[in-house]
Request: fold
Amino acid sequence: MHCVLVARREHHLRALGRELEAAHGIRCEIVSADLSKPNAGRELLAEVARRGIVVELMVNNAGFGMVSSVEQTDVGRALELIQVNVAVLTELTLLAAKEMIDRGHGGIINIGSIVSFQPVGYMGVYAASKAYVLHFSEALWAELRARGVTVTTLCPGTTRTEFFDQSGVPGWAERRHGQDVQTVVRAGLDAFDCGRHYVVSGWINYLVSLAARFATRAAVAKWSLSIFRPHG
Ligand SMILES: NC(=O)c1ccc[n+]([C@@H]2O[C@H](COP(=O)([O-])OP(=O)(O)OC[C@H]3O[C@@H](n4cnc5c(N)ncnc54)[C@H](OP(=O)(O)O)[C@@H]3O)[C@@H](O)[C@H]2O)c1
Reply:
């Protein structure tokens, strides 16, 4: 597929675009956009339409995390997280889905997380944002699957990206031997191709995702404190 790459750092997008074009013989369009701004989703889709592009598969990947105690939480940043991880994902999903329904085909992959399945202490806002992504996307999967539109939620466990460096715990993914990006993306695309409502990447992560079903939510919430409890 040709791609439209969206993020804030244009130089990263341009480098990735060149790499993908050379490797796969596709065309990449670059849109530099800050998705934390109000109406960012609507404006992004308008820009894509202005370039004459029809979106056949949308991947809502942009997102960030926050690890901090309540006392140290920057409330403004927490609201920004909800804007990017929840509000703009909702805006983009609904607007794109309407067009796909009209066409009778299309797909959306939304990125949840292994924390979509349980509350996580010191990561409460982020984990709740990802629970929203899973529940919202699964509802749309059920509603749209008979109308030619597939909505799949990819739920990665710890993955080696910039995520934890941005979230306040640099080096976490390396220390936890997180999965590599290619493995996670492959799991997401395979699940999408099969029309699945969600997939957890990796069987250990899958088992962890079941914890909240077998233990009480209170138990997993208390257990989660040990993961990110601040030292000192
Ligand atoms: N890594 C993990 O362990 C892990 C686990 C579960 C789920 N996830 C989820 O996976 C998704 C991808 O994260 P990642 O691991 O690849 O982290 P990452 O390396 O930090 O990438 C985040 C991406 O989102 C973009 N982004 C962030 N804020 C944005 C904004 N305001 N406007 C536009 N783009 C923005 C970033 O580009 P710019 O900074 O250039 O804007 C970057 O491309 C996220 O939804 C994350 O929650 C990650």
